[in-house]
Design goal:
By secondary structure, the protein is mainly α. A two-stranded antiparallel sheet has the order 1-2.
Length: 272
C-alpha cells in the first residue's frame, strides 16, 4: 500500500467519526475536489482532503457544524486551495491521457476481436480513445458543477449527462462500424480469441502480482464475456442454444454472473 492509498484509508476511517450532517457536507467537498483535480497530483489532493476532514472534526468537537465552518457555498474557498497546488508535469498529463486511451482502446479491441468477424480497426481505436477522454472530462465537469446544488437544481446537469452518454454510445457504435472500412486489419477468428484470452491471462497475473483485489471482478467479467464467443465456436454448444428458450437462459446466466460479481464487490467495499 503506497502513501496515497494509506491516506485514502485513513480518510475513510476518520469520516465515520463525523455526524450525519457533517459527513454529508464533507463528502460533497470530497466529490468537488476530486472531480476538479484531474491534472493535480493525487497525493497532494488526498493530503488536502485529509486536512479539511481533520479541521471539520476539530470544529465538531467544539460543537460547530461543518457548514458553519466552511459556509453554505465553499466553492470559492476550495477553488483557492486547488489554485495553490502545483499541477502535474506535462509528462504525467500525457501519461494520464494515455491511460484513458489505453483503457478505451483495450475495450474496443476486445469487442472487435471477439466479434463474429474479428479485426483490428486502428482508426476506431484512435477515435474511441479520443471520445472516451472527452466523455470522462465532460462527466467530471458536470458532476463538479452540480455538487453543492439542491436536488431540484441538478436536473439540467442530469439531463445533459444522460444525453452525453447516448452521444458517446452512438459515436462509439459509428466508430466501430465505419472503422471496418479504413485502416482495418482482419484476423482469423481463433487468432482473435487467442489474443483476448492471452490479454485476460496477463491482466490476471498483474492483478495477483500487484495484489489488486479490487480488479478480480473485472478479470472475472472479462473472462465470462470472452467465454461466450469461445463457446459459440463449438458446434455442439451452438446446437444446445439454438432454441429461443435456451438462448434466454444462457443470457440470464451470463448477466447473473457478471452483475453478481459486480454486486458482490460493491457490497464488500461498503463493508470496508
Amino acid at each position: 500500500m503506497n502513501e496515497t492509498e494509506k491516506l485514502i484509508e485513513k480518510n475513510n476511517n476518520l469520516r465515520e467519526l463525523l455526524s450525519a450532517e457533517n459527513k454529508e457536507y464533507y463528502e460533497q467537498i470530497l466529490i468537488y475536489i476530486r472531480t476538479k483535480s484531474f491534472f493535480h497530483d493525487e497525493l497532494d489532493i488526498e493530503k488536502i482532503l485529509l486536512e479539511i476532514l481533520q479541521d471539520i472534526l476539530e470544529a465538531q468537537k467544539n460543537s460547530e457544524n461543518a457548514v458553519d465552518y466552511f459556509g453554505n457555498n465553499p466553492q470559492n474557498t476550495l477553488d483557492d486551495i486547488l489554485s495553490q497546488l502545483p499541477k502535474i508535469t506535462l509528462k504525467k498529463r500525457v501519461s494520464l491521457i494515455g491511460i484513458v486511451f489505453a483503457i478505451s482502446s483495450g475495450f474496443s479491441l476486445f469487442s472487435t476481436l471477439t466479434s463474429k468477424y474479428p479485426s483490428i480497426n486502428f482508426l476506431s481505436l484512435l477515435f474511441n480513445g479520443l471520445i472516451s477522454f472527452i466523455f470522462v472530462e465532460l462527466i467530471l465537469y458536470l458532476i463538479n458543477r452540480q455538487t453543492f446544488k439542491p436536488y431540484q437544481n441538478k436536473k439540467r446537469e442530469y439531463f445533459f449527462a444522460f444525453c452525453i452518454s447516448f452521444v458517446f454510445i452512438g459515436l462509439t457504435f459509428l466508430s466501430n462500424h465505419f472503422g471496418h472500412f479504413w485502416l482495418s486489419l482482419h484476423v482469423p477468428p481463433y487468432t482473435g480469441l487467442t489474443v483476448t484470452w492471452l490479454g485476460i491471462f496477463v491482466l490476471f497475473i498483474w492483478v495477483i502480482s500487484k495484489k489488486r483485489n479490487d480488479y478480480y471482478h473485472i478479470v472475472f467479467s472479462l473472462a465470462i464475456l470472452n467465454l461466450i464467443p469461445t463457446l459459440l465456436k463449438i458446434p455442439s454448444f451452438n446446437l444446445l442454444v439454438s432454441s429461443t428458450t435456451h438462448k434466454i437462459i444462457f443470457i440470464l446466466i451470463v448477466l447473473i454472473l457478471i452483475y453478481g460479481s459486480q454486486f458482490y464487490y460493491l457490497k464488500k467495499e461498503q463493508k470496508k
